[in-house]
Amino acid sequence: MPELPEVETTRLGISPHLLGQRVTKLVVRQPKLRWPIPPSLIKALPGQRIDAVERRAKYLLVHTSAGSAVLHLGMSGSLRVLDAGTPAGKHDHYDWQLDSGRLLRFTDPRRFGSLLWQAPGRTHKVLVALGPEPLGDAFDGDYLWRLSRGRSAAVKTFIMDQAIVVGVGNIYAAEALFAAGIHPRRKAGSVSRARYRLLAEAIRRILHYAIQRGGTTLRDFISPDGVPGYFEQELYVYGRAGEPCRNCGSTIRSIVLGQRSTFYCPACQR
DNA sequence: ACTTTAGCCTGTCGGC
DNA sequence: TGCCGACAGGCTAAAG
Question: Do A164 and A243 have their domain in common?
Fold first, then answer.
């Protein structure tokens, strides 16, 4: 499930099965996802050959010469490559049948995921306002510091804003703020440049590490429940309310920030 | 220009 | 056992 490392792991898992394949048929069982699957995609995708599979933020882009599919996993979505003829379950909303005799299947109980279509040479609306990739060159502590001046929103909300930096979800935001020693409720504009440098490095390190971990657990991409147990052993604050801080022993607290639960150590994070 | 809120869905879990 | 509310890893549109 989907924060950036899971999406990247998904990309690595499905890409070899998709590249060069032709989509022989699109089966849609439930078109009502986060947005309805657009008729333009239903018309254009079948018959196309897949040229590339990219990731931008938490979106997957599947490119063909006729346009690109833009996929999002939402909160509970997953993609798997299965043999054609594998019976579909209740939450299996669409399949792409492939030349190879396999299919790409999307499963999503909560239906917050999406399947959109981008015409050649265009950038889909959902991709326009996105901030830089956290693992790319344009992202660092100075960048965060500059954009945060004058901002009164909580720093956690700030780094989860996809217009600021993409791919930092609720878990990784909490973990990165712990690593940088920043209280999640602190105003973004009051965090020092030095702290933002620590924070940016923590985000990069944690995401990179999680991708490596995901890559080893999900390599063949056929495992039915799809998702590794994250690295639950290695979480410092997320989901640990009432438990001792692994650094100082203080009791981890949980609060609600922007309607999302967040976790922090009252002694290590200021 | 920024910040906050409601809402899209279903499943699961804990308390009574 | 069943009912009920709280909560879940995301994101957008609209309102403030």
Answer: yes
Whether residue A154 is found in the same domain as residue A250? yes
- Which CATH number do you get for residue A44? 3.20.190.10
**Count of positions (residues) in chain A:** 270
Q: Is residue A156 part of a domain?
A: yes
Nucleotides of C under 7 A from a protein CB: 7-13
Per-residue pLDDT band at A214 (split at 50, 70, 90): confident
- For tokens 């018959």, the residue is A47
- The total domain count for chain A is 2
The answer to whether some atom of strand C lies closer than 7 Å to the beta carbon of A75 is: yes
Residue A51 has pLDDT above 80, yes or no: yes
Please give the torsion angle defined by the CA atoms of residues A138, A64, A218 and A171, in that order, rounded to the nearest 10 degrees.
40
Domain boundary among A63, A94, A128: A128
Asked if pLDDT for residue A220 goes beyond 50, the answer is no
Reported as a single tens digit per residue, the pLDDT across A204-213 is: 999 999 888 8
Angle between helices A4-18 and A193-217 (to 10 degrees): 40
**pTM: predicted TM-score of the whole model, two decimal places:** 0.94
Q: Are residues A146 and A123 in the same domain?
A: no
CB neighbours of residue A150 within 10 Å: 8
Q: What are the Cα distances from residue A86, in Å, to A14, A23, A80, A95, A227?
A: 17, 17, 11, 11, 19
A192 and A226 within one domain: yes
In a domain, A178, yes or no: yes
Residue A169, CB, less than 7 Å from strand C? yes
Residues of A with a known catalytic role: 2-3, 58, 260
Q: What is the domain extent for residue A176?
A: 141-264
> What pLDDT, on a 0 to 100 scale, did the predictor assign at position A147?
97
* Cα dihedral A29/A34/A35/A40 (nearest 10): -50
